[in-house]
Amino acid sequence: MTEQNAIANYLKYSGNKSIDLAVALIDCDGVLYDSMKNHTRAWVKLMQKNGIKCTRDEFYLLEGMTGAEIIKMKFKQGAGKILTDDEARALYGVKTRYFHELGEAAIIPGIKDVLTQLKNAGIERVLVTGSMQPTILERIDRDFGELLGQHRVTGNDVRRGKPHPEPYLKGMAKAGVAARQCIVIENAPLGVQAGHAAGCFTIGVTTGPIPEKELYRAGADLVYPNMSALESALPSLFESFKTTTA
Ligand code: MG
Fold first, then answer.
1. Residue 62 and residue 28 in one domain
2. How far, in Å, from the CA of 5 to the mean position of ligand 1?
């Protein structure tokens, strides 16, 4: 899909007259960090220790839900157990420990350049993640500093994780903008669904094993094969946002 076609298509189905880009809502896992390999490994370990059958692939597809939501769902489906919030939180603590034992995930190549271009273009960058891990949030400060703005949405801010639009709606509210002023940058189908449901022009980037067509199926307006491809496309994309109107 060309950029202009994708924008024209978005304007048509959303009923917006134009995209006046002011804010980029940025996912964390698989967008800032190449962390999904370690997350999926940690999830499988937690489930195996608790006698719950699973495959690693399914956790790539659950990416975006909060940790507590995933735990409650898997324990119900796999063991018939209804967990309390406290039990889910304790198990999330165990999963977090397994995750940290796997070491620090690398920064996704090209993401700093994407954030720099957004910053230089005067577009505010707002983090929107389901993560609640203080160590990850501290690491984001250390690695990205002012490449990300002051507004953040974490798993602590929302009741319902992705694919519910709440995380992205919260991000828009914190930045004080409407959907037609935002883009969402996501790597996972449930995250793309959330961005789309929030009414934003949603850009998918395939940074893991999930194929491009899954992101389009989830509602992505445009999909790039990697972050460097998005980086190269940004100048013309900015121009297309300005010049494509309904
Ligand atoms: Mg992600």
1. no
2. 25
